[in-house]
Amino acid sequence: MMNKTLIIGSLLLLTLMPAEVAAQEKLTLAECHRRALEANKGLKMAKEKKAETEALKKVALWQMLPKVSANGAYTWMQKSTNLLSDEQKDHLNNLSDVVEADISASIMQEFGGLPLIGDAIANGIINILSNGQLATNIDNAGHRIVDALETDTRNVMAGTVTVTQPIYLGGKLRAMYKTASLMDELSGIEYDKKKEEMLIAIDEAYWQVVSVKQKKELAEQYAALLDTLNKNVEEMVAADVATKGDLTKVRVKLNEAQMSLTKATNGLVLAKMLLAQRCGMPLDTVYDVEGIPSNPDYLNTPAIDMESVWANRKEMRMLRISDSVAQNAVVMARSTLLPNVLATGGYLVSNPNLFNGYQKEFGGTFTAGVVVNIPIFHPGGAYALKAAKHKRMEVGYQMEEAKEMIELQVNKVKFELDLAYKKLAQANSNLENADENLKLADESFKAGVCSSSDLMAAQTAWIKAKSEVLDAQIEIEMSKLYLKQAMGE
Asked: Which domains does the chain show, CATH number per domain?
């Protein structure tokens, strides 16, 4: 019967609980990481940047391979192209007159000198040439020649298919491909760096929520202690074993504790809103987080090998890539001062047919050739080469400076972690003393040999010691995270 009553009571209690409390989800740090990775727009942009550089890398590769292109054109002209001048056309159209004069002169030269009948023979032949069909036939032949050489190029159509293959461009194409590959690698490192920064921001927000949550719990404990003390002092005042001044002191402390609890409550709401925003959740999402483990596994500061740190740090990897890019920029700048060789080939088609007497038909031919360009006077290219060399030296100095700054950062975070371990050890020692002091003060107060002020002082010292332990634990967690980041892990 009792069990049944307990079950019914529990069900009624769950029914009366606010829905948001009943449905509260507890988030782990790993779950926050997963949600942030899915929702972060910066990472999505970095991913698109990575895809962009991969495509540009393929573009650079195709610059070294043959290119095939096709072109077509149509042109209308008012006049056709003429291979003969008007004077030449006139001569050909009256070819018999020219031929007759030349033949007559030749006949008179051949026959005119013959005795007796030479002039008669020559004049007879000339009469035959001038009065017969031969002159007409010669003129017709001239007309046909003029017609054959008349081109109809008022409507011209042409098309080409061309293949171009770079042979030697001073090393420019290889340097371009290497640079594109390096930029692709650089975008991948930038993606990892953004991811790392985002996860660190999540860790910071998560541990802030954990810290404020536990500070709120401490504030609740402190307020509960002072509330109990307030009731006890009220009873003592009623029994004339305590003064109203003692009660006033307790109530002032109780009001301060309640105000601290209100601030911690509001701070927890804001901290949860920040974590929700970074995880891509609505700001009003109701959730809880896991606290610090009861027995956290704190290890000593790991040994540091700076050579490994420099090899692993993303900033150094990015600078090494920048150095390689600067080296390729030197090669590309030098290529403007070196010869360029291209091989070309293709097929040309036209109408009128250029290869068959300008006939109104399509005709084509294959072509092949080599193009060589040799720079002779290019002072701008020489200065561009100098600029590229200076840029590479600049990147080298940046790498040296980055090494120094990274070593300084690693040692700074290492010292902070060592200090956090010492703070935790001291805070635990103080907490043990505060526990013992509070226990003795509580027993003494109950025995009437200790004032309420002494008990409040012991309670305050205990709360402070608990808070210092919590702060040291959070500081260790964050210092471990920052050291891991500084070491490039």
From this structure: 81-140 (no CATH), 169-337+377-486 (1.20.1600.10)
